[in-house]
Prior knowledge:
The protein is an alpha+beta fold. It is built from 12 helices and 18 strands. Among the domains are: 37 residues; 207 residues, Heat Shock Protein 90, CATH 3.30.565.10.
Amino acid sequence: MADRIKEAVKRFQQISLSSLFVILVSVIVMITSVVSLLIFVNLYRNDMEQNAITTSEQAVVQVKNTVFNYTEDMNDIMQMICANIQKEEEEANNFFSNLLKIRSDVVAVTSYDMNGKILKCWTNGQKLKENYIKNLSYVRDLPQEEGILNITKPHVESLFVDYYPWVVTISQNMQDANGNTIQVAVDISFYNIADYVDDVGIGQHGYCYIADDAGNIVYHPQQQLIYASLKEENQKNMENGTYIKSNVIYTVNSLQNCDWHIVGVCYVDEMITNKVERVVSSLVVILAIVLAGTVFLGSVFSDLFSKPVTSLVRAMGEFEGNSAEFVYHPVTGTKEISALSDSFEHMAVRIQKLMEEVRQEEISLRKTELKALQAQINPHFLYNTLDAIAWMCEAGRNEDAVEMVNALARLFRISISRGHELIPIEKELQHAQSYLHIQNFRYKNQFRYQFDVDEACLSYYCNKITLQPIIENAIYHGMDRMVDEGMIRISIHQSEDKIIFTVEDNGVGMTEEQCEEVLKKERSDRAGIGIKNVNDRIKIYFGEEYGLTIKSELDEGTCVTIMMPKVTEGSYEDK
């Protein structure tokens, strides 16, 4: 947690003063705008919700009044039917005939005894079936409640031959002329009510439907979807009022003359959310414009105050990137900025002086280190060579020993090179040839060697005593235990701006781990001192991208590659 805080503080400290000013002003404007937007959206949403509720209630009341008036009209017809059904048969027939002609929505008037048997039926020319399966227009145990119509659910009339109208039935019990209780049923076409309800819309997708006291649907504009279980209504145990459930607004209003309820359905997304989203989108665009204007004006005013600071920071960056050649031009501004500018100028001059002193010290240190590395090679090689000469003298090979001493003298003349670290590649090649000549005496021509040299490379310079330690390692560690004749190949070629030396032998080889270890051995180690020494000197002198790489396979041999830049006489400072 502490590391995260430190990292956050570090990132904050890297923000420029002008950016901080612009961010601060922008944040204040944004917070103020967002809070205002949230308050406005909340108030606007509440207002839209109230408007949606009012619209839904108005639509439901309108449907309720229309259905109520229609059912009251049917109730009046029922009273007229009850008053005329007991008249003389001819008079009654004339009344019903005229009624059915005038009111096309009245499908049939039927009277039943208490067992559901049809006593009389008046239709507009329709013929009764002799047998029918079920009569949905007859209601057994008809409840009697004063002022309440007994209306059935919409159903298909099944009493007539080849005629199946969609009707609701209004029923009422009464006494006939003989004092017997009969039931009078008026089948009324439901299409008029259905068409009206279908035409009522609340918003684009809202609608009204009719349900009874138990919440069962009497009529629904999307009745087919209801029957197919693709849609359902969740409004049960309805009481008058408005409810919002699951993104749906329900408005319920009951008819006073029957057990029907008019239910209005509209959607929050359509009536409220979509409108709010459109308003919010417009306000967000306005907010973005305001914020962009704030950022622009903040940037303009910020530059007036922070430009001198920015110039000073830029000067510091230039000084950091090229301190040696940096020339400072004082920055003008407020009193504080001028003081900072003067202090930075003084500091820059002082640092440049110190850098020059450090550079001179580094040059001296590098000279000392290179000399120390060179000093490691000379005693090590001298010991090995003198050991070989002593062995020849003991063996009585005096002429060979004299020739070997002469070769050693030539080798050391090149090694000394008047104290120069860099020598021509031609002399380094002669140095390697003298060394191989010396070693051939000791090993009695147990190995051969050959040179493959691009003569265009001979005039370039390299670190002295570069090849000899590599060749020495190939002889002592690569061929010392070989039974077959050894072979050493030395090649010198150029590649673009580099000189590539390779020393390859057919000795016993090394593992990958041994190759890496040779280049990592400390100077106190007996084996591999020469190779590490060469690699260290090249990297110190030319950089980490140059030096040695070793590739080897057991029982196959070893190849050491040395890479140096192309160096001409005078292009590098003499170390």
